[in-house]
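User: Can you predict the 3D structure for this chain?
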Amino acid sequence: MNMTQFWHEMYSVTIGLILLTSVTGQEDIVLLKLGVVTGPCQVFCDEQTIIKGVSGLNYVISAKITWTYVDVSEPYLVLNTVNRMKDSDIDLVLLLADVDYYMNFSSLLPDNQTNVLQWATPSSANKDDTDKVSLNNCGSSSTFRSLVDNNEETVLNRCRTEIQTDFYYIADEGRGHHKPTENALVDIVASLAGHLKWSSTFVLTDKEQNLDAVVHGLSVAGVSVMDGMMPDIFSPRFERDFLAMIDFALRDMPNITIVCSMECVKTLLKKPFSIARREVQRYAMRHITRWLIVTFGDHSAADQLTDIETNLDNVVVIVLPDTFFRKSPFKVEDVQTYIQGVLSDIGSGYNISEYNTTIKDLTLAKFFSNNKAVCQWVAIEALMWTRTGRKFATVGHVRGSGRILTSGDIFPNAKFGFNGRELLVSTNVWYPFVTKHENMTFSGFCIDMLDHLAVSLNFTYHLTMPGDGAWGTEFDNGSFSGMVGQMQRNEVDLLIAPLSIQTNREAIMDFSYPYFFEPTVIILKKPDPSDTKWRTLIDPFTTTVLICIGISLPTVSFIMCMLEYLSPYYRGLPDRASMRGLHHFSDAFWYLYGALLTQGGEHMSDAVSGRTLLSFWWLFCIVMMATYSGNLIAFLTVTKEKLPFDTLSGMVNQDVYRWGMIGGTAFIDILKNTQQDVFQQLWSGLVRFNRTDKDILSYDPEVHISKVLSGNYVFLGDKTYTEITMRNRSECDMVIAKEEFLPLQYAIGLPNNSPYTRLFDDEILSIHESGLLQIWKLKHWPKRSMCYGSMVPEATIVSLIDIQSAFYLIGIGIVVAVTVLTCECGYSYWKKRKGRNTDTTEVIHKYTIHSIT
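Assistant: Here is the predicted structure, written as C-alpha cells:
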C-alpha cells in the first residue's frame, strides 16, 4: 500500500464518518489525545491525524494523533519528547520503535502524568495474523509483561519465563567490540562472546553460510576463531569424528560455539560422550569447556530437548524462532488500524452513560490489553543438574541486535565446581595424616582436607590404595611404583596423602600448592643415664676446664713458693730453711688445694706479696666452687642426655649404629641420585645394611621404631610422625637429634597437565588463609605427651646411683692412701737398710717443739 492509496482510504473513512454524524445528528463525546514517537521521517509524514470510531448509534469517540519523529536510538531525545508532550495534555504516548533500551518514565519524569506504552513491532497489518502472536506466549515458553499495571507503574517491557524472577539489565562491556549488523545470528553470537569476555572460540556449524557469517562477525569483534564443519550426525563415527575435531581446541580454546539444527543439537546432548579416564584432556572437557549452542525452532530448548543425558557441565542453548528473523518495520497504516480497532472495541463493548474521564480510562486500558506484538527477546537457557536429571533453566534473554539481559551468570554450573561428580582418590596410611579403619574407611588430617575440598568444589569421592603399598619410587625404565604409579597410568583422579613434591615426580604428574611443610629428622634410642652417673662429680665442668684447674694448682703453688722464698720479709729469720711453711712447695700446694676446696690451711703467708697472691687465689676458688656447686646440683636433679651424635655427618662417620628409612618413598630417589657427600655415604650405608637386613627399607614404620628401641639403630623419617610416636609412648625412651635435613612439601597429586591444578591451588591457598590447617592439627595431633609428667618441675630425690661417684672418690682415696703408705714403708725400710734412718720419735719430738716455738 502506497501513501496515495492510504490517504485515499483515510479520506473515504473520514467522509463516511462525517456523513454518519450528520445523519444521526450526533457530536463527538470524547476526544482522546494520543502522541506517537517514532523514528526519523523517511518520505512524507503527517504531524497530526484524527481518527473517529463509532460508539453504537449514539456515541462517537475520536482520537487525535500527534506524530513526532526523532532518533529513537538516543534515549535523551525520546525522554525530552515525552516530557514536552505533557504540555499538550496528551493522554497516552506510543513509543513506536524497536529499541534496545528501557526507560522508567515514572521515575525519570516524576511530574509527568502522561502514560507511555512502548509498542513493539507488530508482526503484520493483518488482524488475523497478529492474533496468532499471543502476549502470554511470546517467543516460545516466555510471557510478555505490559509496561503498566493497575497502579500505573512502569515496569520492564520484555519476554520472561514463567518460573523466573525479574531480570535486571546488565550492561555488557564486551558489546563495545561488536557493532550490530543486519544478521541477528551474528549479532547474538558476537555479543554473547563479548559479554562472556571470550578471547577465542572454536566454531562449528552445519551450514557453510552460517559458518562464514559467524566467523566474520566474531573476528570483527576481536575474538580469535578456529572453525570447522559439523560431522555427519547420522554417521556411526559421529562421536569419534566430533571429539577428534574438539581435541584441537581443548588446550587453547575451551570455549565452543555451535550453530546447527535442532536435530544436530539433540544428537550432541542426548547421551554422554564415552571418554576414558586416561584421556586426561578429553576427560576434563566435561568441566572446563563452555558450550554456546544456537539452534532454530518454534519452541524453547526446555520444550524440545527432553531426556538429556550429556555429561557436559556448561551448556547454554538459544533457540531462535523463524519470526525472530522476519523484518517488520513500523507502518502508519498499522498504527491507525490498531487505534481504530481499540476505539471500535470501546464503542461496541460499553454502554457509555458516564463522564468523559471514565471513557478515557477505559480506552487507555484497552490500548494496553490490545497491544499485540512479536517478542523481540529470546531466552538464554542453561542446562542445569537437578536431582531428577538434566533440566533447562532460563538465565537471561537476548535481542536480535545483541542486547543482553541476565540475572547472573550465563554459565551458572561453572561456579558449582565438579557438579557432584565422583572422583577416584588414592591414599596411603601415614598417621596422623591418614588412618585406616575397618570396612575401608579412613580418617585423619588429609581426610578432613579432602572432605572440605569435596564440599568447596562440589564433588564426591571413592578412596582406594596402591596395591603394592608404596608411595612412589622410580624404576630404571621410568615407571613409578605405588601412588605415583597409579597417577602415571591415569588410574585415579587425585592423590590425597602426605605425598612430597619431587622433581622426577613432577615430570609425570602435577602437584597443587603445598599444604604442609615437613623436615626430616634423626630418631634414636635415648642413652641410659645410669651409664654416665659415675661422672657426676666431673660432669659440671668440661674436660678443658678440669685440665686448666689441674694446671693452675701446681703452677700457682710454685709461684707462691718462690714469692715466699725470695721475699725480703723473711731474711732476718734464722734457720728458716728447716722450718715448715709456704716457702716449701709441698706446703704451698696443700694450702692452695685446701683453699680450692674452701678449706683452711696450717700455714699462712706473712709477706705482702704472698698475701696478695693468696687473696686472688681465694677469689678464683670462690668463682670455681660457686659454679661447680650450682652445676652439680643441676646434674643431680636434671638428667643430661648426651647423644652419641647430633648431626647426619656424625652418624655416617661412626660404626656402632645402623640406619634405615621407609622404603618406596621420595627419600630413595633423592639419595640414589644425590651429589652431596653426606647423602652419598648415607645411601651407601642403606645399601650395605639392606643386604643383610631387609627391614632396613621396610614400608611399615612400626618395624623401624621397634629396631630403634632394640638399640644401636637410627630411623630417618619425617618429623611429625616421629614426634607423635614419641608422644604416644609412656617410656619416653626415644630422642630426636638436633639436625634437620631434606625438607619436604606435601601436596595434592593430579594428572599431568591437569586443567584442575589452578582450581586446587586456589582452594589450598584459601585453606591456608582460613586457619583450617591449624584446626585439623589440633584435632588429630595428640593433646599432650604421655611422658609429659617427666617435664613437670618437682622435687627430685637423690639416689645412690646419682652420687655413686662420691663413694668412688672415697674408694679411690683409700686406695691412693694405702698405696702411699706402702711407698712410705718401702722408703723407710730402704733407709734403714742404708743406715741413714734416724729415730722416728726424736724427729717427731723435734718437729713438734719447733712448731710450738
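The chain is about 40% helix and 20% strand. The radius of gyration is 51 Å.
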